[in-house]
Design brief:
- Helix 1 runs antiparallel to helix 2 (31-49).
- The chain is elongated.
- The chain has helices spanning 5-24, 31-49, 54-66, 68-75.
- By secondary structure, it is mostly helical.
- The protein has one domain (5-75).
Length: 80
């Protein structure tokens, strides 16, 4: 995927929205949610430096794939 700045900003916004949603529900934010925000920001930093952000994007996608079951289980809680 050739990520544009807008694509990357959307990734960050989505990750931050997840954190806000969890906080607004009165829950503790799990480490995976905070890490996802950090990794998305790393993609933007690489892009802004003029580096190819594909490696950072791959790390983010691998992290998201690896945490899919935990994330799905977390959001299966009706309180969220």
């Amino acid at each position: 995927m050739q990520a544009t700045r807008n694509d990357i900003e959307k990734l960050i916004d989505d990750a931050q929205s997840t954190v806000e949603h969890i906080r607004n529900a009165g829950r503790s934010v799990p480490e995976w949610a905070l890490t996802e925000v950090t990794l998305a920001r790393n993609v933007l930093e690489a892009h802004d430096r003029g580096d190819d952000p594909s490696h950072a994007l791959g790390v983010l996608q691998t992290f998201q794939d690896g945490n899919k079951e935990e994330k799905d289980a977390f959001f299966s809680d009706p309180a969220l």
